[in-house]
Amino acid sequence: MTTTSKHQHLQADLLLLLTTLIAAAGWIFSKETLAGMQPLQFIALRFAGAGLVLACFCLLPLKQLTWPQFRAAAKVGCVFGLAMIFWILGLKHAQHLGVGAFLATLGIVMLPFLNRLFGGEAPPTFSYLALPLVISGLALLSLDPSFHLGWGEFSFMLAAFFLALMFLFNSQATARLAPLPLTSIQLLITGLITGSISLLSEPLTLNSSPVIWGWFAASLLLATSLRFLLQTWAQSLAPPSHTAIIMTLEPVWTALAASLWFAETMTSYQLLGCLLIFSAILINRWPAFRQGWLQRKKALEISD
User: For residues 43 and 84, is the Cβ–Cβ distance under 8 A?
Assistant: First the structure.
């Protein structure tokens, strides 16, 4: 591995780590914003605004898009919109933010099976090995006498399903257009869908306090626009296996942030349940971890 390649991979790792930290902070920003703003209204303004910010960086590529390319990007945006509807409802109604973060990552475990359902390759053995851990983790959460799987928790799991579906369609769309215009359209469509439903189901409240608008600005500029820009940049510097390894840390940072900011604590049942779910995620991603480790080992051998 050349010095330049080593520097790029280190830079990508640091950018991805920063991305996961910003994503975790985004849960806090969003939760605070919901104290003074309607859920769907917030998510609509957040993603439409972030989509416009990113569009400023790719105006020419957006103008050059063909109809099939736009349709592929819009398809991703529609599914992402559904995911965000359930995610924000989960954030609004869930009892425990840290537990919700682990439930929202279950899409990683669902993805191989959805891929097979849509005509892809059969799930690897590790995906089947992860299922008992997921079931055990959910069982432990449901057995906790101080915790129950209510509407908020089910919303997070539905969000995980649609996020997995979005990732599947997104992988297909990236073969047709560049990441930045794809992300911009995806966010704008998400804002359009959630905004339309908000107008039909929620009162229009734009008289929130300056503090709420401050949290909203942090959600839009930091947790959405900056996060996607950093993630896109990092993914251009390193192979996908690097992303797979580091991005799994998001629910861990979110749980830690919730414990620090909201003074959340986990019972032994909740802690063990989340650990089992996180173990399932790690097992499911083991092929990517192994690929990344082998790539690094081979590169180091060549450089020596």
Answer: yes
